[in-house]
Fold:
Amino acid sequence: MPRHRLPQLTTTCRSPDLAPTLARPWFSPRPHLGENQAYNGIMTARPTTIADFPPAIIENLSEARRVHVFTGAGMSAESGLETYRNDKTGLWENVDPQAMASIDAWARDPEPMWAWYLWRAHVAEEAQPNAGHIALAEWEQLCDSMLVTTQNIDNLHERAGSQHIAHLHGSLFAWRCSICGRPYRIMELPTQPAARLTPPECPLCHNPVRPGVVWFGESLPQREWELAEQWMMIADVVVVVGTSGVVYPAAALPRIAYECGTPIIEISPAATDLTPLATVSWATTAARGLPELVAKVQESRG
Ligand SMILES: [Zn+2]
Structure:
């Protein structure tokens, strides 16, 4: 039995009122603050270059023993993986991504979804980790321990060399039986997109194999969720990269670090719903910002 009810992936919701579903005694969400509004008397710093970072934050970053990095779609944007939003195949141009990401849609008609996820896996396999993924793997070597909690399903963090990854939304490469859960290996991904494909049968129970990703209406994987929650509490610093902070429950995680008073560094080209929680919010991209940040950590550690 899970020790608490696992939160389900929900459609975008801008209300921080969902946060209490975490049901922690110390968890008392503060009123939602607008950009650059003060909390605890401190403004969110919005530096334009790393040279403008508050010196105390550089110190936090270089002395941090446990680093928790929390990543979203923006992390992989410079690897060319914004897929369905700028679908180049034309096949899914007018498809609502949420229609391809719900358990109900799968139950109704798995074939379009199976074709779509195979294609996405192919595209992810062709993509390369960017300088941001690589910088994180380098940083892991410098600190005592690092956890990368990602909402991405593309496996680019592990391909860049990160060792400890919590896949909150599963992985494009973790196919499994839709009923008995037995893992399934796809030997070869299609190199051409198709509108419909029939999912293979589980060799054990003969039910259809499904993508190993978390769909709307499904619970997040327990081990990953608990690890992410725990690391939001124990990390010395939390770095939030490329996430808009609108898909719950993942978006509620940085709030835990905020409630713990942990420094939060956000890297995002535009302000997000998480910006008011950040100690520093740097308007840059993952592939530009992270290598500079890690170089700074290296430099200050001598
Ligand atoms: Zn099965």
Summary: The longest strand covers residues 66-71.
